[in-house]
Design goal:
Among the domains are: about 35 residues, no CATH class; about 150 residues, Cysteine Rich Protein, CATH 2.10.110.10. It has a five-stranded antiparallel β-sheet with strand order 16-17-23-22-21, with no helix packed on it. The protein has a three-stranded antiparallel β-sheet with strand order 2-5-6, with helices on one face. A three-stranded antiparallel β-sheet has the order 15-14-18. Helix content is about 15%, strand content about 15%. By secondary structure, it is an alpha+beta fold. The longest helix is centred in the N-terminal third of the chain and has 17 residues. The protein has eight helices and 23 strands. Keywords: LIM domain, Metal-binding, Repeat, Zinc. This is Prickle planar cell polarity protein 3. InterPro entries: PET_domain (IPR010442), Pk/Esn/Tes (IPR047120), Znf_LIM (IPR001781).
Length: about 500
């Protein structure tokens, strides 16, 4: 229940919400526009986070929070000093000349450069909301806190700002210097090169600009804002993951838990009032909630399950699965196999044709197999039956995890942490290397190596670009991220 003050604050936020009605970049025309959920930090229509709807600059409320957090580099709205050394950027490291600003951004992947009215600016807005959640910093962005919780959050935020918060400074390493070592990749930083320094991490420690990232999520630290845990020895965290080291975060409302009534469910701690189904908002049984994934009650989970295209049995939303163009299979030799000969295709190339998969052109040229009935082959998103074209179902997960497997120019990839769906056709392959990071090949080319070099961590390297709502794009081809875990 809202108090009178919290209801008034929320109505004021709604009145000035610049994202209200904005289209979702992930769901596009499927979402009528952003409408903030009463207590979840998502759109009430499409369930995507606010970050998928942002655009047109930093919202005034967030700008005021940043101004109070880092007044020197984030002036309040209306200030003539933008904190940016070059007019074409939404933000730039303070204290640099225009030439140095250009040099600094040339060291970053192009999709991450925050040029005005560019994908890089939208990426910055998404990361500001994700890495520096306003509800971790000020109580007016939280849902229904009592006075004790509000007081504890204020003290918590003040202590973090006083003891852990910092902002990296960019400057050239002196030419007379013998060089230094990057704290992230271990590579050399030569004299005269631009480097990022973090005073709280330790005297003389520096990073390559592209390596200045959160130790937990491996995302570049937005606006160079970091939190340094005590005794970190050069280990830096974004605001979100630093908060997670100190407090439990409720998966329902995304807020840190400060007392009150809470419950343990699915290996995570929830506000008791927020232990509710994502779809129907009904109460959830803590004993029957699986770890990770979407918080769904059994009826909603059953309605949203995939059906295996071979055996017809449902695949739980949190279970590992293989997917290609709206079709789904259990990752078992008896399910993901060549239709005519039954050869298991896990970890092998396959040829999709007519809604079926084959191990070779010879099998594909044989007599057509009797496909399963259409109701057993519906995609999770309620799209057309697999093999009849149409868009794939929407992504189940919205996180960015490790990828694995080696494929050809199409098909599906299942890896440790997440699965990928190629919405194109052609040859492909599936597999998992049994490690957190793997290789992924397209058209015979290896596009990635360890997670430090490409999109397994949600970054954009090697012409890969993360799209909203669980999509990756590479050379104009679209890949869809799904939940799942395969140990090893």
């Amino acid at each position: 229940m809202f108090t009178r003050g919290s209801r008034r604050r929320r109505s004021e936020r709604d009145a000035e919400d610049p994202d209200r009605g904005r289209p979702c970049r992930a769901c596009q025309e499927l979402c009528p526009g952003f409408q903030e959920h009463p207590w979840r930090k998502i759109c009430q229509h499409c369930k995507c986070p606010r970050g998928e709807h942002v655009g047109g600059g930093v919202p005034p409320t967030l700008q005021r929070v940043l101004a109070r957090l880092l007044p020197e580099s984030h002036p309040p709205p209306g200030s003539e000093d933008s904190g940016c050394s070059a007019e074409e950027f939404a933000w730039a490291p303070p204290g640099l000349s225009p030439d140095q600003v250009s040099q600094y951004f040339s060291l970053l992947p192009p999709p991450l450069v925050p040029r005005l009215r560019s994908p890089g600016e939208r990426h910055r807005l998404r990361e500001l909301l994700r890495q520096l959640p306003p509800h971790d910093l000020e109580p007016q962005f939280c849902h229904d806190l009592d006075e004790a919780e509000r007081r504890e959050l204020k003290l918590f935020a003040q202590r973090r700002k006083r003891e852990n918060l910092g902002q990296g400074s960019v400057r050239p390493l002196p030419l007379t210097s013998a060089g230094a070592v990057c704290q992230q990749c271990g590579g050399p930083v030569r004299g005269g090169a631009l480097a990022v320094f973090a005073a709280r991490a330790g005297l003389g420690l520096c990073w390559h600009p592209q390596c200045f990232q959160c130790h937990q999520c491996h995302q570049p630290l937005v606006d160079l804002v970091y939190f340094c845990p005590g005794g970190a020895g050069g280990r830096l965290l974004c605001g979100r993951h630093h908060g997670d080291t100190l407090r439990h975060r409720c998966p329902g409302c995304d807020e840190l838990i400060f007392g009150g009534r809470w419950a343990e469910a699915g290996g995570r701690r929830w506000h008791l009032r927020h232990l509710r189904c994502l779809e129907c908002e009904g109460p959830l049984d803590p004993q029957n909630l699986p770890g990770g994934g979407q918080p769904l009650c059994p009826p909603c989970r059953a309605r949203g399950a995939h059906l295996c295209d071979t055996c017809g049995d449902p695949i739980d939303l949190q279970a590992p699965h293989v997917t290609h163009r709206g079709q789904h299979w259990h990752p078992l030799p008896g399910c993901f196999r060549c239709a005519p000969c039954g050869r298991p295709l896990l970890g092998r190339p396959f040829l999709p044709r007519g809604g079926q998969i084959f191990c070779s052109p010879r099998c594909a040229q044989g007599p057509p197999q009797t496909p399963r009935s259409a109701p057993q082959r519906r995609s999770w998103g309620g799209g057309p039956p697999a093999g009849e074209g149409g868009a794939p179902g929407r992504a189940v997960g919205r996180s960015w995890g490790a990828l694995g497997g080696v494929g050809g120019s199409g098909g599906a990839v299942v890896g440790t942490g997440r699965g990928l769906e190629d919405t194109g056709g052609g040859w492909g392959g599936v597999g998992w290397p049994g490690r957190s990071w793997g290789l992924l090949g397209v058209a015979g080319r290896v596009l990635g190596g360890t997670g430090r070099h490409w999109g397994g961590t949600g970054r954009c390297w090697g012409n890969w670009e993360r799209r909203g709502g669980g999509y990756w794009e590479h050379w104009g081809r679209r890949w869809e991220v799904h939940w799942g875990h395969w140990g090893g």
